[in-house]
Amino acid sequence: MTDTTSAEETVKEPSMITQKHMIAANYDRLTSAPESGTKVVSTYVPGNLNELIMCFDMVSNLPEINAINNAMRKKSGGYITEAEKQGHSEDVCTYVKADIGLMSKGAIAPNGKPIPPPDLLLLSYTGCFTFMKWFELLRDEFGCETVMLHIPYEGDGIVTEHMRDYVVKQLKDEVIPALERVSGVKFDIDRLREYLRKSAAAEDDLVWVLQSAKNKPSPIDAFFGGVFYIGPAFTAFRGTDEAIEYYVQLRAEVEDRLARGAGPITPEGEMGPEKYRLVVEGTPNWTSFREFWKMFYDEGAVVVASTYTKVGGMYDFGFRHDPDRPLESLADYCLGCYTNRNLVQRVEILENYLEEYEADGLLINSIKSCNSFSAGQLLMMREVETRTGKPAAFIETDLVDPRYFSASNVRNRMESYFQMIEQKRRGGGSATVAA
Amino acid sequence: MATDSTSQVIERCEQLFEDIDFAAARAWKEAEPGRKVIGYMPVYVPREIIHAGGMLALGVLGGGENIEVIHGDAYYQSYICRIPRSTIELAITKRLDFVDGMLFPSICDVIRNLSGMWKMMFPDVYTRYFDVPQNFRDDIGGTYYINELNELKTGLEEVSGRKIEDDALRRSIALYNENRRLVNDVYALRAKQPWKAPASEVYLVIRAGMVLDVEEHSQLIRDYLAAAEAEDRPPRDNCRILIQGSFCEQPPLNLIKSIELAGCYIVDDDYILGTRWLLEDVPVDGDPIANLAHAFLHQSTDCAAKYEPDGTRKGHFLVETVRRRGAEGVIFASPSFCDPALLDRPMLGRALSQENIPYISFKYAENSGQMQPIREQAGTFADSIKLWSAA
After folding, report:
1. DSSP, residue by residue, B53-94
2. Chain B positions in Cβ-Cβ contact with residue A173 (cut-off 8 Å)
3. Which chain B residues have a beta carbon less than 8 Å from that of A371?
4. Number of alpha carbons in the 13 Å side-chain half-sphere of residue A360
5. Fold of the domain built from segment(s) A3-191
6. What is the CATH T-level fold of the domain A203-425, as seen in this structure?
7. How many domains does chain B have?
8. Which of B 188-227 lie inside 8 A of A, CB atoms?
9. What is the pLDDT of residues B104-155, one digit of tens each?
10. What is the CATH number of the domain that holds B128?
11. Is residue B24 part of a domain?
């Protein structure tokens, strides 16, 4: 059953409504922190330590999520301009500038109330160099306590014992003491174990939902749907009963769609016949999210697997938070996030997705702001094409800067790409569609 | 024996700088059978370990302005700095085919990902992403870094085919200590009498160390110092400025010359920063790996690639350098799309403003050709500094 009451143009399933309420409640908790006395911790989505933060009764503020929210509400462009007026380069990450511009304009949350300044900046430096500078900039602004959790990069494609030990040692001797100091709450490892147990339960259902896309037709869109309603509950809600219940609800909906042989739900309702099955590498464009998505579902294209939905954790290759190894498990989680993996591993992941999900091809959305994702993607694309024999396409947009989304260019390339897939099906050769 | 003139020393340095086929490094390798060459990218790697393994540490700072990027563009998106494109170009055109290993230090996501590209494109070359700790406690980051150094040492031993003994490493540490002291002497001479050591010459002399064995480079610096001290060059009415933000992709030589021609003496900079990364001598007794780790954690320069744990210290190193060198202003000159430098700039700018130190900023690429805007901007900056100081 779907709901169209929230806006004429957007069709929502019950799980989406549930998630919307969860996110709204979290913003309410965040913006009411000064009155409630709850301490605020700013931290990032990749390598987020939600279970640990919950042990200290703190509420998370996620700057990337604020930037995304403001992009979808068409506000990020103004914030970015504001940051550039203050001297921030046009060349650097637009998440950072959207965040700085937001602060300059009163830091208003989607509920219309101001986001309180953080009591602690928890810099989980996982898979993105810019994170480090971003939090230095925020520290410069707020002057609050900052604690760094440096996650070594998987340069050789493996996690060694000494990498894990380094992370665990930082958790024990730097991060937990900072959380105790700021919150006034003593750390209880059994409380952490309980939250991790709940995370693992939700992770099982999350993976089931993601892997439902192996069916034909796929009952979900694993990129647009993945970031819109499948994945977000995995940030500020991991480790909660709400998250478990949310994924149970979502799974039931997907099971129903599978039973009916229905395709994914889109903002305009259930998608029509599935014509193309794609794997997407890279981050979405958020300023024209719906327009971008429409270019897919209007053509009957569904994304059956995506890598962006794995920056918050790689669960589909077996990782689960483990209450029996609490700190080691948090370390492994941070070390294993998608953008902390080297390019060789990323190619293997993409190859696996193309084969396992029986996709027609690979689409790469290269993001101006994000070198962590984008640098090297063209080589990855060629390597994946060589290994799988499936055609690939390459488009360029940005995260939250509307100046870098050219709808006509993207549409042209998408149309060419779909033609290429058709040609491939007819037995013709493939050529890359690229900028 | 007659001392070389500065022009003789600089002529040699220019040849080394312009040679994008790395003839000097190739000659070093061919001089003895079994010799190996290890390339490294900006900003810092412990070259001492490479040297102790009997190998040449080769600085690969991109292709510069003299290489036409034909193939490299096909590997990258529109919005990215130029150094990865030209480095790929160097490799594809076989200019690095004599290099047995490549190290990609932790500096930004572009260089980080280039390490993965290298693994895919050149699977027979020893390739390592050289991670460094962003936690500077001996018992946390130090322990991690010692393990990283030992892993690097083991990898290099496999390339060279010989064990790197502690005594050999101590000898190499001593040679690099000496080299750093000499580099610092050049910088000190320039800060004291900038007309005797123009920035473009200093740049070329230090840059030569990217392709020469450390002992040969140290001798070259000695020759330059002797020649520069002896040569009579008239002072100019220039202001004294410091360059910040050029630690990775290097500017074209003409950009450095243009800044001086516009009336600015460059009295400090962060070009080729790896040569001055460590601020003190590394002890030559005791555990050499532990000594290198300790130096990195506690005696290394500030750089945008490093985390500053103490927010109140952000920008202090830059301000202190301005004071120490007697600089009158700062030019932020960063490569386009350089995340570390450009993200750091607002914070450093604020630190300078608090101390009433004037600054300007512009961007470049290693192949920037139009110098007129740079000259005008730097010239205006120089004029304004002179006006302020006269007021």
Report:
1. TT-EEEE----GGG---SSGGGGS-SSS-SHHHHHHHHHHTT
2. 137, 139-140
3. 80, 108-110, 113, 339
4. 23
5. Rossmann fold (3.40.50)
6. Rossmann fold (3.40.50)
7. 1
8. none
9. 999 999 999 999 999 999 999 999 999 999 999 999 999 999 999 999 999 9
10. 3.40.50.11890
11. yes
